[in-house]
Write a structure and sequence with these properties.
- The complex is a heterodimer of chains A (261) and B (127).
- Chain A is α+β, with helices and mostly antiparallel strands.
- Chain A is built from ten helices and eleven strands.
- In chain A, strands 9-2-11-10 form a four-stranded mixed β-sheet.
- The longest helix of chain B is centred in the middle third of the chain and has 22 residues.
- Chain B has 127 residues and is mainly alpha-helical.
- Chain B has two domains: 31 residues, no CATH class; 69 residues, no CATH class.
- The chains are: A alpha+beta (261), B mainly alpha (127).
- Chains A and B meet through α2 and β1 of A and α3 and β1 of B.
- β1 of chain A pairs antiparallel with β1 of chain B.
């Protein structure tokens, strides 16, 4: 009898505890904000430009003076808050180099002086098969459906695998805080912080509002930007009419930036 | 119980010590005062209701950044049907133009340090 009663009390006690679990758990769990937010609350801007495969054609013969490069580079760097850091820790989205460095696998003897002395505008090639995206451990860099290789700064951990993978040197690491090196801060665009990798994004923030990239706009027609999948687009017309080359195609990354020589 | 005369007072002292912050605050007063935030004078309502924003602004901001950067969705339709461009710098901070008075006040009081402003630029002036 005594034993029975003891057992009963034990079970009753446990049951009472069990009843208390649910309210205690409810206190601990956070209400789901997503359930409170309206469904399908997000959509792209109707003004935005759309494409299957964004690409760029650069007419290198039109970049005949250093000022023309300067204008394009400043248009990009000033608006995207790209710092001007001297030396090896430089950060660049757009920059220039000579023929040999731009097309090292295109080794030709006796190339015309005008080509040999020419500078070439360099930027992220937004490859169809981007090596940087394959190696990124956090998916901070990823390829969008429209072909743009995008950076998500919120996720970059600064491991620099992408810099090792990119055959074009298109990526820059912020070894220190970049803000002291900004001459001017564009209040409408973020800066970066110490320890993240950055590069050209084909001005996704402008495309989303229906505008062309800054460099294309500032180039006065020397840089064409458009849909490589659309046979009627400006870029495809330029590719049809001119002989173009791309950088380091033998590596298989398939760049989306074409150079008219 | 063996050594009950030591163990039980010991337990009481132990419990007293680990609950010190709770009863200290009850005894000493200093009740938690909600930070008074300056609200934009020319606006009646934020993108959602104030209570919702107070509790969930971090979830919204977290979702916003993914939607913009990863999905390219830049327009937010609020539950009242109003549409907003998704942007911390260009939408939120256009009304809440004083980061020190608006963001920092609560964050400091509650010892949270979000790292939004290591990259995003806070509005200049008005400080």
């Amino acid at each position: 009898m005594n034993n029975c009663r003891r057992k009963f009390l034990k079970i009753a006690g446990l049951s009472a505890l069990g009843l208390g679990v649910k309210p205690a758990l409810d206190l601990l769990t956070v209400p789901d904000a997503h359930a409170l937010m309206p469904p399908d609350a997000y959509k792209p801007d109707a003004k935005g430009l759309k494409a299957k495969h964004w690409g760029m054609v650069i007419d290198t013969s039109k970049f005949d003076k250093p000022e023309k490069f300067e204008k394009v580079i400043q248009a990009c760097h000033n608006t995207h808050n790209v710092p001007e850091i001297p030396g090896k820790q430089e950060v660049k989205w757009l920059w220039t180099d000579e023929f040999k460095a731009t097309f090292p696998d295109n080794e030709q003897h006796y190339i015309p002086d005008k080509v040999e002395s020419r500078k070439f505008l360099l930027l992220c090639n937004h490859c169809e098969n981007p090596a940087c995206v394959r190696v990124c451990p956090t998916k901070a860099t990823f390829k969008r459906e429209d072909g743009i290789v995008m950076m998500d700064m919120h996720r970059c951990i600064g491991c620099r695998f992408c810099m090792a993978a990119c055959p074009y040197g298109a990526r820059s690491f912020n070894f220190g805080e970049p803000r002291p090196y900004l001459k001017y801060e564009n209040p409408e665009y973020p800066t970066r912080m110490r320890g993240v990798v950055e590069k050209c994004t084909f001005c996704t923030e402008r495309l989303a509002l229906g505008k062309m990239p800054y460099c294309a706009e500032a180039s006065g027609g020397a840089i064409l930007f458009g849909d490589l999948n659309d046979a009627k687009s400006e870029v495809r017309k330029a590719l049809k009419e001119n002989f173009t080359i791309r950088r380091k195609v033998a590596l298989g990354t398939s760049p989306s930036v074409y150079y008219i020589i | 119980m063996y050594n009950g005369k030591y163990i039980i007072p010991g337990l009481i002292v132990f419990l007293g010590l680990i609950t010190f912050p709770f009863w200290y605050n009850i005894v000493a007063g200093a009740p938690y005062a909600k930070a008074k935030l300056p609200l934009p004078a020319d606006q009646k309502e934020c993108i959602e209701k104030a209570e919702f924003m107070r509790a969930e602004h971090m979830q919204i901001l977290d979702e916003w950044r993914d939607k913009v950067v990863r999905d390219g969705a830049r327009i937010y339709t609020a539950s009242n049907g109003k549409q907003w461009a998704i942007s911390l710098q260009n939408t939120c901070m256009k009304c809440h133009a004083n980061k020190v008075e608006f963001c920092d006040k609560c964050h400091l009081q509650n010892s949270v340090s979000p790292y939004c402003w290591t990259c995003h630029l806070e509005p200049k002036g008005n400080q």
